[in-house]
């Protein structure tokens, strides 16, 4: 499976305002690195809030909005309903790197700032 990264919406909003990233046409670009990701709307499922069993086994996972809608999910900001279950979620995007990190580093003359996509995004998001 191809590596993917979750970009929380709140962090993306800050990065867009600061000019650290650009988001356009389903593509997110980290400006300083010229690193691009194909993105799709997604949520990270934090917890089930009704006390019911998580029959869809979603807690702790990142799922695309399209997949969740196929399950019958209704999403509103940081809440999601699926059948009798209610969840707290973190809205955002999943990103799939346009190229491998090694290829990205080669294209930058071997001068990519971080050692992996995960490290790059952690630095970008300030965590």
Task: Describe it.
It is a single chain. With 127 residues, the protein is of the alpha+beta class. It has one domain (5-125). The chain has helices at residues 9-18, 65-70, 101-107, 117-125, and strands at residues 5-8, 21-24, 27-30, 35-48, 62-64, 74-76, 79-82, 85-97. Strands 1, 2, 3, 4, 5, 6, 7 and 8 form an eight-stranded antiparallel sheet that branches. It is elongated, with a radius of gyration of 16 Å. The model has no long low-confidence stretch (mean pLDDT 87).
Order of helices and strands: EHEEEEHEEEHH
How many structural domains can be distinguished in the coordinates? Answer: 1
> Unreliable stretches, pLDDT < 50, 5 or more residues?
none
Put simply, the count of helices is 4
- Percentage of residues in DSSP E strands: 35-45%
**How many strand units?**
8
Mean residue pLDDT: 87
Shape: elongated
Query: How does the helix and strand content classify structurally?
Result: alpha+beta
Distance between the termini: 25 Å
What share of residues is helical? 25-40%
């Amino acid at each position: 499976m191809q590596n993917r990264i979750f970009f929380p919406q709140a962090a993306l909003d800050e990065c867009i305002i600061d000019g650290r990233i650009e988001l356009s046409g389903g593509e997110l670009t980290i400006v300083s690195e010229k690193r691009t990701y194909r993105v799709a709307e997604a949520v990270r499922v934090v917890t089930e809030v009704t006390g019911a069993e998580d029959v869809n086994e979603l807690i702790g996972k990142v799922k695309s909005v399209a997949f969740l809608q196929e399950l019958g999910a209704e999403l509103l900001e940081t809440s999601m309903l699926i059948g009798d279950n209610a969840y707290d979620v973190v809205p955002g995007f999943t990103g799939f790197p346009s190229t491998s990190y090694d290829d990205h580093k080669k294209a930058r003359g071997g001068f990519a700032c971080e050692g992996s996509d995960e490290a790059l995004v952690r630095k970008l998001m300030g965590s």
